[in-house]
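WARN no homologs supplied; continuing
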Amino acid sequence: MKCNGCPCWGVVMTLLMAVGLLVLLIFVARSNNNKSKEIFFQNMQINRLEDSLKSINNKQSKLKAIEKSLIIKYGIPSYEARHYAIIYDEFSTKYNISWEVYPCMIWVESRFLPMLISDHDAVGIAQVKESTAKSVCKQLNITYNKHILFNSITCHVIGLTYLSDMINKNGINDGLRSYIGGPSFKKGCNEIESYVDAIKKESMILHYIYVGVSKGDTTMIFTNTLK
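OK structure emitted
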């Protein structure tokens, strides 16, 4: 049928083509938008992966530097230094305490001797008393027995947990005093003050060795190793 001689079908076809073209353009735009989103999320995942790898590399570099510092300063075997480095770094991260405090406390307490028993019945590499060990084991859900403190790793965990709790509760100086003198330590006691001073001095020396190892500064390492 014709409408007053006008080519209506031509108009209709033109409209249909225009609508089809519009739909096509919308589809292409959406496809490009989806591709852009896909590329964006892919790039975001790549960035996260790169950050994770960088973090892992930094972590490994730090552990290696701690391990080497322990070997240089205290002459302990490399396999022990490797395990202890992990422990010190983990406790440092968890409690926000300088990692150097932990090995220095161990050195002053036991010289890294795992079988040591003191005149005050403190046991193991971290020189922990039975009453303290029982309390911390209960806190950590560890089954206590009389041999547990002779295991250097377990004794580390028990001793450093107690030390970290005391430092976070009382500050670094009183935390160290609490470790050797108990929670009711007597301020001004010469033995306790000497203990605190020794650990702080050791921590400073070990820190400079660690910095020297991290930077590859042999002069800094050598100078502080002699102290």
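The radius of gyration is 33 Å.
OK
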